[in-house]
Design a protein that fits this description.
two-stranded antiparallel ribbon, 7 helices, 2 strands
């Protein structure tokens, strides 16, 4: 992560590994930060049983996990779960939730490949070139399997 994150809750002994970003999460506040910064890239199934189990075991957020499980399977599951965490932790407020809701609405029409390209472009802008190259390579491999080509920007 690029910034300092103030964590008031429990800090996990065993982190949750986000394979997509090769990132370890140690607290619910770090999870909220990640969600806020990457909401438009994440899929509806982000709040998996594995994540909820980790939150219960490592962060001892049993009551929160019960509530998140109740939100699963409902309309706008991802947004509802994210909103619950934001407000419960106090890490983000109603204005932030409104912003994320707008971002998700604006990016709802994008395909997975288009979202990944945006992520790769963001890595380039942040000068994280190895991550950008890995994303672009994944896109090119996936593109070879599909008939419709995806336009990739070449950065100089």
């Amino acid at each position: 992560m690029d910034h300092v994150i103030l964590c008031n809750g429990k800090y996990a002994v065993e982190p949750y590994f986000l394979e997509e970003d090769n990132l370890h999460i140690y607290s619910v506040e770090e999870l909220c930060y990640y969600l806020y910064k990457n909401a438009f890239l994440l899929r509806e199934d982000f709040f998996s049983e594995e994540l909820l189990s980790w939150m219960d075991k490592e962060l001892e957020l049993t009551e929160w996990v019960k509530q998140l499980k109740l939100l699963k399977g409902k309309e706008e599951e991802f947004l509802s779960c994210m909103e619950y965490l934001f407000l419960k932790t106090g890490y983000y407020d109603e204005a932030d939730v409104k912003h994320v809701r707008a971002v998700l609405k604006d990016s709802n029409h994008l395909s997975v490949a288009e979202r990944k390209k945006i992520r790769a472009d963001m890595y380039c802008k942040k000068q994280k070139y190895a991550k950008a190259v890995a994303e672009y390579e994944q896109l090119l491999k996936a593109d070879a399997l599909h008939a419709r080509p995806l336009c990739l920007t070449v950065w100089k």
